[in-house]
Design a protein that fits this description.
Blueprint: H1 2-24, E1 31-37, E2 40-46, E3 49-51, E4 56-61, E5 68-75, E6 83-86, E7 88-90, E8 93-98, E9 106-115, E10 118-122, E11 128-133, H2 138-159, H3 169-196, H4 209-227, H5 234-250, H6 262-277
Parallel strand pairs: 3-11
Antiparallel strand pairs: 1-2, 4-8, 5-6, 5-9, 7-8, 9-10, 9-11
Helix pairs in contact: 1-2, 2-3, 2-5, 3-4, 4-5
Amino acid sequence: MKSGIWLWLVAFLITLLTAYYQRITGPTYPISGSVNLNNMVIDYKFTRSHGGKGDQEVKVSVPDSSIEGILYYKRYKTNDEYTQIPMRYENGSLIAYLPHQPPAGKLEYYVKLKYGEQLINIPGDKTVVTRFKGAVPLTVLLPHIFFMFGAMLLSTRTGLEIFSKKANLRKLTYWTIGFLFIGGFILGPLVQQYAFGALWTGIPFGWDLTDNKTLIAMIGWLFALYMYRKSEKPHKWALFASVLLIIVYLIPHSVMGSELDYNKLDKLHKSQTSFLIK
């Protein structure tokens, strides 16, 4: 019993570390830093995701009300010219708003600060890319997160069963597959539908890496379950599926995620307009 408790604790620790890694990586995690303007240190934190209705706020805290700011933005992966929006000073911060975009629409932006004759861009020579999405109800989002990380915990614990004297491999495997199915193939598509208007954008309908990661993890565990009957050492297949799922989870969240193609959208609008004119 003591060894079983220790294995659960190790699995829980691995799950926590993986969740933390997921939290601080990926293209939607806020970008932050600091710049020096006329010997004044200005800290910034720019969000790279916006859910729900309304425009996205861009805010920079400044130590002097005489500092001026301009927000520059354009649609991502287009030849658009940058639009400029003067930032207003309010309660110690310069504030402007990025216009709301359709689900999966992306904007790239940066801020230019001016103090006297000195100009500075933040964040440096780079731009920030933010993605818009629809609002996901907490009644769907929270269970999705619970089941996905529950699947991670169960998967890791099942892989660690190789160190257990009293193996409970098949039962743990069924629990892992069950949690992964509910979290990734029932609740996951619902989250995707609310956020981006599509239930599934992985294989065979697309290359969304979030969906495909879930598919790869499920295939790994179903394959491991199948090999239990053919192998004299089924634990090694559980360990294989467990490591595969960890590798999948370590890929930053939302990499190669849903993305609106503005160029195709413009062509569609142009063809519809031409049709109406004719």
